[in-house]
Amino acid sequence: MVITVSIDEKERADYSRLQEAIDAVPEGSDAAVTIRIKPGIYEEKITIPASAPPILLLGEDQERTILTWSDNAHTLGADGEPLGTFRTGTLNVLAERFTVENITIRNASGPGTGQAVAAFVDAGHVVFRRVRLLGDQDTLYTGKGKQYYNECYIEGDVDYIFGAATAVFDRCQLHNKRSRGYITAASTPHGEAFGYVFLDCTITGGEGVRDVYLGRPWRPYAHVAFIRTSIDGSIAAEGWHNWGQRDRETTSRYEEYASTGDGAAADKRISWSRQLTSEEVANYRIIRIFGGWHPEGN
Q1: Do residues 200 and 170 touch, judged by C-beta distance below 8 A?
Q2: Is 90 exceeded by the pLDDT of residue 29?
Q3: Does the pLDDT value for residue 298 go beyond 90?
Q4: Contact 217, 242 (CB under 8 A)
Q5: How many CB atoms lie under 10 A from the CB of residue 98?
Q6: Which residue in the list 8, 159, 262, 267 is annotated as catalytic?
Q7: How far apart are CA 3 and CA 13, in angstroms?
Q8: Which of 22, 69, 114, 212 is most buried, by the most CB atoms less than 10 A from its CB?
Q9: Would you call 138 a catalytic residue per the annotation?
C-alpha cells in the first residue's frame, strides 16, 4: 500500500496533511505501508500509534521535506498543565516497526526554552536513514527497543540524545550548538550489554563552541561507546561527566576506540572511562548489538 502526501495543491496526492495519511492506515495488519511525502514544510505534531503496521515515511528531499512543531516542556497542554519533556515531540513513534528516510524533523521551540523533543521514539524496531534531527535541548529521545540511525544529522546543546534504548548511530554527524553542553544522557537498564554505540561518526561544533561532553549518566548504568569517531575541538579533553553523582563513576560504561581529531584526547580522558581494545571492538557488530535483528530487514 502506497499513500502520497503533499501540501502543494498543484501536486496529485492522497492527503495534504501527514497525520491524516497515518490515521488512514488500516490497523491490525502486518502489511507494510509506504507514505511518500512531497517536499514542503509540514507544521504538524505527528504520532505513529502502537497499533500501526510497519510504516515507511519516505521523504522526497531531505532538506526540503520538513516536519516541524515547537512544543517545549513549559508549553501548556489541553489540560492546562505544562507538557513536560515527554509530550513535546514533533514526531512520536510508538509502533513495533517503523522506518523513516530522507526527511527533516525539527523542534522549533528554540534555545533556552527548555526540553523540546524533535523525535520521541518509544518503539520496538526503528530505522532512521538520512534524517536530519534539529533542536536544542533533548532533541532525540530513545525510550525503548532497538533503534538504528544511519547517515543522520543530529544537533543540539544539552543531553540531545537521551534515553534507555539500545541504539546504533552509523556514520552520523553530531553537531554541538552550545559550549559546556552534553551530547548523550543514556539511561541504559542494568544488565543490558549495549546502550548507545556510535560507529564511524563525526562530531562537530558551531563557531566558538567548546567544553562539550560526550555524555553524562542519566541513570547509573549508562553505556555509551564511540568507535572510530572524528572529534573536533568542541569536545572537552576529559570527555565525560558524572552529572555530580560520584557513585555513577563505578557503574557507568563510557568507552572509545580509535578516536581522531582535535577532540580525541585519549590520554586526558577521565580515569573511569575506557579505551577499548581491538579484540573488544570486534564484538561491536550491528547484528550482535541488536541481538540478531538487522535493520536492513525492518
Answers
A1: yes
A2: no
A3: no
A4: yes
A5: 25
A6: 159
A7: 8
A8: 212
A9: yes
pLDDT digits (tens, 9 = 90+) for 13-25: 999 999 999 999 9
Does the structure show a pLDDT above 80 at 28? no
User: Which residue from 253, 133, 247, 122 is spatially nearest to 186, judged by alpha carbons?
Assistant: 253
The ranges assigned to domains in the chain are 40-297
What pTM did the predictor assign? 0.97
Decide yes or no: CATH 3.30.950.10 for domain 40-297: no
Catalytic: which of 71, 122, 136, 138? 138
Burial 73-93 (b: 16+ CB within 10 A, else e): bebeeeeeeebebebbbbbbb
Strands 91-93 and 119-134, sheet pairing? parallel
Rounded-to-integer distance, Cα 66 and Cα 34, Å:
17
pLDDT at 211: 98
Mean pLDDT of the 128-133 span? 98
Grid look-up 518509544 returns: 122
